Structures are given as C-alpha cells and as structure tokens.
Amino acid sequence: MNKYKLLTLVIYVMTISGCAATLYDEPTQYDPKKVEEYISSMDRRFGTLGFYGLHLGMTYDDVNAVIANTPWFYLSASVYTKDDPQFKEFNVLYGAGNIGCEGSDGRGDCYKVQSASIRFFDGKLVMIAINSPPYTADYIDLKVKEWGAFALKGLVNKYGNPSNTYLTINDVNILSFRSGYFTSLYEWNFDQEAIQLGIEESESKFSSVVQFSNLEGLAKISEEKSKGVTNF
Asked: Are 21 and 178 spatial neighbours (Cβ–Cβ below 8 Å)?
C-alpha cells in the first residue's frame, strides 16, 4: 500500500470512528444558550467570585467540567501533575471571548479576553486572572487603558466603588509599571476574597488584568514559597 492510500485510510478511520476531544482542544461548535445556562448554574452553585463559569473554591474536577461544557480550553496546564508542589499548579486557559461589548444592546465594540490564568492550592482554585490582549507601549492609552476602563465600569456596576484606589486608570503611564510585574490600580475586598484591576508588563508588552483571589489561599502559597531550600 502506498503512502497516499495509507494516509487516506487513516483519515477515513478517524472520520468514521470519531476522535474524542480533550480539554486542550478548542471547541469547534457549541450551543450558546446551553453554555449560558451552564454558566448560570455554576454561579448559583458556588456563589464565590469568578468569571464565565470559573469560580474560586472549585476543585480540579469542577474546573475540568466547566472546560468541558463551555468554550474554555487549556493552553497549558499542570493540573494533572498532582505530585508537583501545590503553588506551581498554574494554568492558562483560552476561549472566553470578551468581558463585554459597548452599547445598550451590546452590539458595539467588544473587549476581548486574551486568556485566563488560574492557580490552585490544596486542590482548590484560589486565583483567576482575566487578561486583555497584550499591546506594546504605544498602545497603552489607546488599547490597554480602554480595556481597563471598560472593566472598571462593569466591576463598579456589579460590586460598587473600589475599597482602595492606588492609582486611577487615567493617571497611569509607562513610568507607572515595573518590568515583569502586575501593578494594581483598584481593589475590592470581601472578607476572604478580593478583586484587583490593574496592568501588567511582560516582555515589553502591556495587558489590563482583572484578578479574583482567595486571600487565605494566596497567603498559604506565599508561606509555601518562603520554605524553599537554597544551596548556599
């Protein structure tokens, strides 16, 4: 059998038998109404801070179920390597679409979600960071701050005014940031949970970020990191 016929046979077998999608595969089709209903059910079930079906306090299985029932998919993950130190379980997701669109009918310009970074500790989700697309410094005012301003409006509408304002989004500039770090601009505090809206720099590109955190979990991550052993 020549290579062409063999390739044709393989494709044919794959087609008739089907290939099960994994949590790393971008969904090719889904029912928006069913996705919306599923996300609403997660909102009712957990009641913790979160975004697009993901909620603080979820287990690995909970998060994987959300990914299986929504457009989310893993870009990278260590979620299955449970023998790793807990604070290293940091995962990146794609697929949420946007944080919203302008206009009363939602048909104006939309603000895309580039990715979501999630972190587990002790088997529970303790951090969800929603990231805008990254832009160079030339677009801080035009793109990065616009995304952040739109996110700020939505957060204030839902959660009220911030508990703390460190620097307004209108006042930030290229000198406001440290290379490789997240700069918090606004913060909302709710007992053991918090929301931060800010801008981060990575590899000379800037992104607006909305971060939902379980404060106790992040404190435990910091404690674990402080126990590191050096060779000195």
From this structure: no
Residue 83 clears pLDDT 60, i.e. is over it = no
Residue indicated by tokens 């801070």: 49
Give the predicted TM-score (pTM) of the model: 0.83
Q: Other C-beta atoms within 10 Å of 31: how many? A: 9
Non-local (6+) Cβ contacts of 83 within 8 A are none
Amino acid identity, position 170: N
Q: What angle do CA 149, 55, 153 make, to 5 degrees?
A: 15
Question: Phi and psi (nearest 5°) for 142?
Answer: -75, -40
CB-count exposure of residue 6 (10 Å: 0-12, 13-18, 19+): exposed
Six-digit token string for 201 = 């720099």
Contact 22, 80 (CB under 8 A): no
